[in-house]
Amino acid sequence: MADVHVVALCGSLRDSSTTRVALERVLAAAETVGASTELVDLRAYELPMFDADRDRSAAGDAEELAARMREADTVVLGSPMYHGSYSSPLKTALDYCGFDEFEETTVGLLAVSGGSFPVPALEHMRSVCRALNAWVIPHQVAIPNAHSAVEDGTLADPDLEKRAVTLGRRAVQYATIEPDPDSFESDQNVGAEGK
């Protein structure tokens, strides 16, 4: 598994982001089983709102972001839940990607909520991945009550820690899985293809 490269895409822009802490734990676990890893922090990218009439090469750092996604064997998407879905920075980042970046790629999901479990955000990310013909790892990480989830820069709850570690290991284990046939959604999706 030493040739597996896992990229985590952080959809939170907050400096004290629970999402980022959890993704860092996922990546650390992937490294323990031999993967190389990278955290793509969207705070470092200039990504204007997606416009289908604008080429990706003329959209700030969108081409660099897409290249990072193409280099991954597994992508782990992480987002806080905002208004029952995932964050707009992550949505913009995904809009600049398409089949070239995600088709037949293994994807892990992680979502964080200030209140109850962020299941809708996970479902929405899963739907986007299905539309791009990605293979989504069945194991996912849902972190409720973000205000108490992190202590001293680490996940405070041993169960959450275990879930994050498991996702990191699964990201490596399933990096080369044989994907299922194309989904119905992917046939209907034109998205950012060619942009």
TrEMBL record:
Its cofactor is [4Fe-4S] cluster. Residues 176-195 are annotated as: Disordered. InterPro entries: Flavoprotein-like_sf, FMN_Rdtase-like_dom, NAD(P)H-dep_reductase. GO terms for molecular function: FMN binding; oxidoreductase activity. It comes from the Archaea. GO terms for cellular component: cytosol. Residues 5-147 form the NADPH-dependent FMN reductase-like domain. It holds the Pfam family FMN_red. Belongs to the SsuE family. Isf subfamily. This is NADPH-dependent oxidoreductase. The lineage of its organism: Archaea, Methanobacteriati, Methanobacteriota, Stenosarchaea group, Halobacteria.
